[in-house]
């Protein structure tokens, strides 16, 4: 049973919604946009409040009907059936309402920057980075998101020492943030002649893309170096000084990009990644109690620190945070079954948030 505090909170939201409606009708153009934004954000919450309260009122009416000795048998039977249905629906309506009332992560609507790096395992770890990259590319495609590689450091066997990509689309960060951490792979490498299973690891960091208004970067805080690009096997090497390294002096964060032939484009990509890293750092400082330090997202790349294991001999994927195992390795790596892991992670996150805010 919900307490009076919960009911008072719902009353306050409904009152604010009505107040915003009145304010918008008389607002100046300069104030209208901000009022309309808050009104739009409250709209879905108000809908759930009204649905929840309507169901509660219907329940009370049915109970009164059943308590009346004059109610005819046929009407009583219908009322009992409707009451049973309402009693099944009300807990779910309340849960949906409480979820809607949870504080929202403002970054959830942003695009996501994925950083995937090879950890323990040498060349096999680099090949695993390539597997994860393809998984996220396919996953983005299935969700209708745009996937753009910002920088990549390839190895001679087709793997990546590290790769950074921008995933653009509604809800990209909200879902992909659950991928942050160490991913471990167990399989027989193609280069292994003895058929022994090797364990390798790759780290994944997920950052919300930052816009200029999200983070202020002053020119005096930047050191920009340009140099000639280098590549594996002499390929894709620029003979001009087009590679760019940007260092943010106050924090020591460094971003180097050499993928494009244009120094201007390399600088633009480096600034995009730098903004995201600084924005993430600021979010951590503001929300220290809620967000772990960025380094804890990815650990050291050691085999023992992991959020998920991909076991090829057994065809299984295990997410260690929620103890979930799927025997769908191929479908997960194809991006097709990744939501079967992410959805339970979201549900777990929501359940934990609900348990700490329950009235």
How far is it from the N-terminal to the C-terminal residue, by CA?
10 Å
Strand proportion, as a percent range, falls in 15-25%
Strand order of the largest sheet: 2-3-1-5-4-9-10-11
Mean pLDDT: 84
Can you walk me through this structure?
Strand 2 (146-154) and strand 3 form a beta hairpin. Helix 2 (29-67) runs antiparallel to helix 3 (73-101). The chain starts with a helix and ends with a helix. The protein has 359 residues and is of the alpha+beta class. The protein is flat, with a radius of gyration of 26 Å. It contains nine helices and eleven strands. It has helices at residues 4-26, 29-67, 73-101, 122-142, 172-176, 263-286, 294-298, 329-333, 339-357; strands at 112-118, 146-154, 160-168, 181-187, 198-208, 222-227, 243-248, 253-257, 308-311, 316-319, 324-326.
Structural key phrases:
alpha+beta, 9 helices, flat, 11 strands, eight-stranded mixed sheet, 359 residues, single chain
Secondary-structure topology with pairs:
Elements: H1 4-26, H2 29-67, H3 73-101, E1 112-118, H4 122-142, E2 146-154, E3 160-168, H5 172-176, E4 181-187, E5 198-208, E6 222-227, E7 243-248, E8 253-257, H6 263-286, H7 294-298, E9 308-311, E10 316-319, E11 324-326, H8 329-333, H9 339-357
Parallel strand pairs: 4-9
Antiparallel strand pairs: 1-3, 1-5, 2-3, 4-5, 6-7, 7-8, 9-10, 10-11
């Amino acid at each position: 049973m919900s307490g009076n505090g919960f009911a008072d909170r719902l009353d306050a939201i409904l009152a604010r919604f009505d107040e915003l409606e009145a304010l918008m009708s008389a607002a100046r153009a300069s104030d209208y946009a901000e009022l309309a934004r808050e009104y739009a954000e409250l709209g879905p919450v108000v809908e759930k409040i009204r649905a929840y309260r309507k169901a509660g009122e219907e329940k009370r009416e049915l109970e009164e009907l059943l308590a009346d000795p004059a109610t005819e048998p046929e009407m009583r039977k219908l009322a009992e059936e409707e009451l049973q249905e309402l009693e099944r629906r009300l807990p779910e309506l309340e849960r949906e309402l409480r979820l809607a009332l949870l504080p929202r992560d403002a970054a959830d609507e942003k695009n996501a920057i994925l950083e995937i790096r090879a950890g323990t395992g040498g060349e096999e770890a680099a090949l695993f980075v390539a597997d994860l990259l393809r998984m996220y590319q396919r996953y983005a495609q299935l969700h209708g998101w745009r996937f753009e590689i910002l920088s990549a450091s390839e190895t001679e066997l087709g793997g990546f020492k590290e790769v950074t990509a921008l995933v653009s689309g509604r809800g990209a960060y909200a879902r992909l943030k659950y991928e942050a951490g160490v991913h471990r792979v167990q399989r027989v490498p193609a280069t292994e002649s003895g058929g022994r299973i090797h364990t390798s690891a790759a780290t994944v960091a997920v950052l919300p893309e930052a816009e200029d208004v999200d983070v202020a970067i002053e020119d005096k805080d930047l050191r920009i170096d340009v140099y000639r690009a280098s590549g594996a096997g002499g390929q894709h090497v620029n003979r001009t000084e087009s590679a760019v390294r940007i260092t943010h002096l106050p924090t020591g964060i460094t971003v180097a990009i050499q993928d494009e032939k244009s120094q201007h484009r390399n600088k633009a990509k480096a600034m995009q990644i730098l903004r995201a890293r600084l924005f993430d750092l600021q979010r951590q400082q503001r929300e220290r109690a809620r967000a772990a330090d960025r380094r804890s997202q990815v650990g050291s790349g050691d085999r023992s620190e992991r959020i998920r294991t991909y076991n090829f001999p057994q065809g299984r994927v295990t997410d260690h945070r929620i103890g979930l195992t799927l025997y769908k390795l191929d479908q997960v790596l194809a991006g097709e079954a990744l939501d079967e892991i992410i959805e339970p992670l979201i549900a777990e996150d929501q359940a934990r948030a609900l348990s700490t805010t329950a009235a």
